[in-house]
């Protein structure tokens, strides 16, 4: 026991000082104030954790400092908003999206076909490029005539801000869906799928022939048929699907929105890793630059599609009851009336922000922890963080795990974005500030440590909220008459200072591995 | 070359032929541009507004960026310290000179002295953390220090001096160097400063101290093994870099008369990183070339594409990162043997040379 304490003396002392600090800070305010501040801190901490955990997994295993992670968080939020507020646009985009993805699902078949090709020389080299160009021409030709009902950033009456406001007031009227005019849906479907199949085959042609007898598993075909089937369904049953989505309970729609955001994040992460990051493992600094460039591009794309103004995604019905019986005082009331706020110790607590988000954060924390500790994939990931070369030497396909982890990390960030959309609102800069928070949290907790990410995120969230609260109350500076009231812009400085102090005391962070 | 010139001068000229040529081009550039527009040389000399004055302004911005990028190249490219708080060095110089000139009515000389003192202090602030943290943790600590500086500058508590999030406005600039009326003087001052900084840096990299810095970049443990206290060498590099960046900041304040808080943000550090990546990391000329390419590209894209410029910018950086990893100067150096050979073959083919 004594040894355990002596071994990590600095760690225990730091934690003790932090606890004393928070207790003293809590004693300085009324009971309901500190309970609310604590819950708010946990809420901010949970969102930070969702970004930080993915970031730390990626950094630990791949050694990639993914500075585009904040942008991924933002994209997750915007995707969730689209599904939740404009299901018609979502269905319109779902069909071409899935049909375009479908061709790449058949990579096993493509590899096998490639072995059958018996051409050499210039033609063999030119073939993939020609295929890609052909695919691009087909897709562009079809997609230009593809009707997509979408908002109009330039027109205020039809901008995302207005739709968001209308949805919040319950007055949302979706515009009439545009019919196919220049081409028939069947032609569009065939064109998109043909383009996707050709592109998938051409990409596979870039690899060299291995002369191996490859087998194609039935899973590969099943995946292709599932994706293509859902895509075709979304295309031909467009109106019915839209009507179904607008008709269902907003809780289910919210769930669907979060799910879509996470899937989109996973897809985006997988594509990013396998196309852009993979060639750069030998040049670490350049990965950093690449992610910075991607982040700039991502923000520009979001600006072009959803516009610059900020707006807030409405909360689902489960968390937005305001009428009779609200704010709830008992648990039964809360379940019965779905109140947006509850009364606790004379203070009002927003259910979505201060209860739901921390709970989801906890669930994700435990799920990923179990995944890391109890599954084979988790074992490989943990081993890879310790010594990647050794794992590779043991005959495990680390590249594949890399892609999976990157996709998972980006998916977690997108989940954070989708959850934060109703509480923090959507803006072009939401990613940057959160990325800074996550970086600070990771530096405090230890860059590659998963529990460290959780601890650091909670510390950052709590500290920020306590300082914001004290901005209103004022901090009496000892031995003087001055009462210092920090303005909100000064708040991030406090977390940064905490980070610098902790890094000076313990260069690897609170729970980081010693080198 | 005449026979009288000594061999050292001769070799200096032949080694820096490109530099001297571009310097000459830069000296005559304002006049040539003026002639193209139809303005007389006298008009250019008198700083009458026109294309020439505009081009001078663009060139001055490039020189300032080049000095700033050089200072980043010294600590990142030469010494191998990845710092994310470098814009703090620049912004400290920019803000301090602006505040001293505006709120304290100091003379330009006194301002410069103070800027130098604070720059050294800044470098030691980064230096304190050096023995404790390395690699990516150092990057994070410097990012932290830089963001604290950024946040403090943006806060309302010091808003009377810094102008908070609007930035420092209307700095009174001494008349003899005022870019509105004496832009040509400013242009030449900036060239001379850039040249002085460049040669000091070149000398530094070739000096024994600079060699140790390169050794630290390559393998710090080995440098320690050889008996060098690497901490001192890093501090020297940091101080030199900080002083240079602060000078660039002062020049920026004098040229713009306003200082935006963006100069203290992470984005501005990334700008320096991008510039030396475009030019070539660790090659001092790369910073000069990169600054010109970066500013002109940015200017051109903004002018012709407007809003979507930053999208194209990002795409170009990704392409450079993927396909031109050693930057323009780095790639040039690697390929120069092939280029010389190719030129010889071409000349032989054309029967110009046997």
Number of helices of chain B: 16
Number of strands of chain B: 0
Mean pLDDT of chain A: 82
Structural class, from secondary structure content of chain A?
Answer: mainly alpha
State the share of residues found in helices of chain B, binned by percent: over 70%
Main interface: chain pair and counts: A-B, 38 and 38 residues
Low-confidence region ranges of chain A: none
CATH class of one domain in chain A equals Mainly Alpha
What's the tally of helices of chain A? 21
Low-confidence segments of chain B, given as residue ranges, are none
CATH topology of chain B: ABC transporter involved in vitamin B12 uptake, BtuC
**Multimeric state of these chains?**
heterodimer
Structure in words:
- The complex is a heterodimer of chains A (515) and B (354).
- Chain A is an all-alpha fold and 515 residues long.
- Helix content of chain A is 71%, strand content 2%.
- Chain A has helices at 2-7, 9-27, 31-62, 69-85, 87-102, 107-116, 122-144, 160-169, 185-205, 218-236, 238-247, 250-277, 284-306, 331-337, 351-374, 376-386, 388-393, 398-424, 430-445, 450-473, 491-505; strands at 341-344, 347-350, 475-476, 483-484.
- In chain A, the strands form 2 sheets. In chain A, strands 1-2 form a two-stranded antiparallel ribbon. A two-stranded antiparallel sheet of chain A has the order 3-4.
- In chain A, helix 3 (31-62) packs antiparallel against helix 20 (450-473).
- The longest helix of chain A has 32 residues, at 31-62.
- Chain B has 354 residues and is an all-alpha fold.
- Chain B has one domain (53-306): ABC transporter involved in vitamin B12 uptake, BtuC.
- Chain B is 76% helix and 0% strand.
- Chain B has helices at residues 7-15, 17-37, 41-45, 51-78, 86-103, 108-129, 135-154, 159-162, 183-206, 208-218, 220-225, 230-255, 266-279, 284-305, 309-323, 327-349.
- In chain B, helix 13 (266-279) crosses helix 14 (284-305).
- The longest helix of chain B has 28 residues, at 51-78.
